[in-house]
Amino acid sequence: MGMPITVDIGGASSGELIDTVFGYFEYIDRRFSTYRADSEIAAINRGDVPVADWSGEMMEVLALARQTRDETDGYFDIRKPDGSLDPSGIVKGWAIRNAAGIVQRAGISDFFIEAGGDIQSCGKNARGQDWSVGIRNPFNADEIVKVVYPRRRGVATSGTYVRGQHIYNPRGSGGPIQDIVSLTVIGADVLDADRFATAAFAMGRDGILFIEQTAGLEGYLIDVNGRATPTTGFGALCQP
Known about the structure:
Blueprint: E1 5-9, H1 14-32, H2 40-46, H3 56-71, H4 88-105, E2 111-115, E3 118-122, E4 133-137, E5 140-148, E6 154-159, E7 180-187, H5 190-202, H6 207-213, E8 218-223, E9 228-230
Antiparallel strand pairs: 1-2, 2-3, 3-6, 4-5, 6-7, 7-8, 8-9
Helix pairs in contact: 1-4, 4-5, 5-6
């Protein structure tokens, strides 16, 4: 998937289960990666595959993308200016959520799955404590500015401090986001956190207002001046 992935699972059969989870991520990469010429999404963008032959997973992800576009007044849009499709802004959270389902169906209730900064956790860690997630200082990679305890919720961060400018405002000028550098969203699960983090970041500074006004979401924004703005319910998630 072009990013580091961490899977932390307890239990005697965890090794085999972890292999299954990584196998699932490899399968998703082969289907959705825009960096692989042999992926399904690459074939679709070349016009090699008729709609009738698109996979069920592809149709599900594209339906979620349309739903998110409608829910965010067009700020989430997987269609690029050249007309091609790039579902990267939603596939990661969707895949992590599905991987969590694989783990849960195996009877595991304590786990932590992270891919490229998007996280789904459940239960307790090896020390018997609630899982915690650190929000990195975008101006100093060695510093954690906030620690949250998601307690079964999903966490996703969109930003420009690792990959550079890769999120653009699909409305107006369509240019890169200049006024914020990091936006962390906590949602009911990692899919909601991921898709709304991408959309809210595309809104720039107004994104935190969107998160504030959307039921079930909390967020933490850091602007280009290093100033942080949390939603009103964010502080409660920082309590161990």
